[in-house]
């Protein structure tokens, strides 16, 4: 069978695979930085999502922002609570909904990690010049928008 035939897929040219592979490399590069605090990738995603906001957010909000399965977020929240980084609160308008908020220690860890992770991002993107970075940002935004991904903007 001809490898260039349309009934074969060159995985290394397949955009979904390429994006996934890049995401895995970026996540793994950052993971060592927050592993120092005893947290993993899903736990960092919870911490980072809550860290963008002054007010509590629901676990559902975290799931929607991070596109991480709710069971993984639930386990991550449980561990972050054990570490004293996150606390649960009842929603004022719906007692069945649980709201999440960083504790003072959680905010401290978030503030400590932020410059480290931003420096790591800068290092990972250092192969791109300013115009390439703007183009990448624009392309990512277009793809996210076309997929209807929620934009979780900071307060």
From TrEMBL:
PROSITE patterns: HTH_MARR_2. Coiled coil: none annotated. InterPro entries: HTH_MarR-typ (IPR000835), MarR/SlyA-like (IPR039422), WH-like_DNA-bd_sf (IPR036388), WH_DNA-bd_sf (IPR036390). Residues 1-145 form the HTH marR-type domain. PANTHER family: MARR-FAMILY TRANSCRIPTIONAL REGULATOR, TRANSCRIPTIONAL REGULATOR, MARR FAMILY. This is HTH marR-type domain-containing protein. It comes from Methylobacterium isbiliense.
């Amino acid at each position: 069978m001809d490898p260039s035939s349309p009934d074969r897929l060159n995985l290394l040219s397949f955009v979904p695979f390429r994006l996934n592979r890049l995401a895995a490399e970026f996540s793994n590069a950052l993971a060592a930085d927050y592993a120092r605090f005893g947290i993993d990738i899903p736990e960092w995603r919870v911490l980072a999502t809550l860290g963008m906001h002054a007010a509590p957010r629901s676990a559902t909000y975290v799931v929607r922002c991070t596109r991480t399965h709710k069971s993984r977020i639930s386990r991550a929240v449980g561990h972050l609570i054990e570490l004293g980084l996150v606390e649960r609160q009842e929603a004022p308008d719906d007692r069945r909904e649980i709201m999440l908020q960083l504790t003072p220690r959680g905010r401290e860890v978030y503030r400590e990690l932020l410059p480290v992770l931003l420096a790591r991002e800068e290092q990972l993107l250092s192969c791109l010049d300013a115009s390439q970075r703007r183009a990448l940002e624009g392309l990512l935004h277009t793809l996210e928008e076309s997929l209807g991904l929620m934009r979780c903007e900071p307060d």
